Amino acid sequence: MSKFYVVATPIGNLGDITFRAVETLKSVDLILCEDTRDTKRLLDKYAINTKTMSYHAQSKFSKIETILEMLKEGKNLALVSDAGTPGISDPGAMLVSKIKESFDSTEVQVIPIPGASAVIAALSASGLPTHEFTFLGFLPHKKGRETLFKEIAVTERTVVFYESPHRILKTLESLMKFCPNKKVCIARELTKIYEEFKTGTAEEVLEYLTKTPEKQKGEFTVLVA
User: Fold this and answer.
1) How many CB atoms lie within 10 A of CB 104?
2) Which residues contact 219 (CB under 8 A, 6 or more apart)?
């Protein structure tokens, strides 16, 4: 029986990898990566010499067929994303689905190797309610975007989503418009040197970022209580 490992990797700090993840990446026949150059930094740090192959959102169907064929031949594979847990707002979800469709559990075992996740890391240190939450991934750029902000305004659960530095100010403006009184937390550059959490109303957080343009850079996880 082949094994297909879904391996979580660090979201910034390369020290945030589990012993089990390192052992798994060393033991498999091939590692599937979003970007082989990004993954190489991690592999080099932990002296992992396993061969790699790219698999990302633009990969053609023939690449999936190649992966399925390797599993059929009995090879053990690992899937990693550029950062965090594969399959969470990530093209790996489609690949895992295809594997589940193509093989039963006696032929290929899909095994999660848990670890870093920006969603969970942000929630754990935000100070916002975490007993129930809704994760929206990356918000759409245009179509359906306003509808989501209206839903965020009325929900009674904490809402978490990812945002790019190019749209963070517009996002906060929208939150100001639709839910001006809700508590908002932005987690920036999680686990990296400039990691920062800023909490307040959308207006307060927007004012903070506007006054400090250098804080508008990096990767954002946005939480709305």
Assistant:
1) 7
2) 118, 162, 164, 165, 188, 189, 190
CATH code (residue 196) = 3.30.950.10
Residues spanned by the domain of 213: 118-224
- pLDDT of the residue at 33: 95
**CATH number of the domain bearing residue 7:** 3.40.1010.10
pLDDT at 98 over 80: yes
Structure tokens given for 78? 């690992």
pLDDT of residue 3: 98
Looking at the DSSP assignment, which residues form a beta bridge with residue 223? Answer: 160, 185
What's the CA gap between 15 and 17, in Å, rounded? 6
Pairwise pLDDT comparison (87 vs 71), residue with the higher score: 71
Whether residue 33 is found in the same domain as residue 55: yes
Structure tokens at 4: 């297909």
DSSP letters of 68-132? HHHHHTT--EEE--SSB-TTSSSTHHHHHHHHHHH--TTTEEEEEE----HHHHHHHHH-S--SS
Q: Read off the pLDDT band of 61 (50, 70, 90).
A: confident
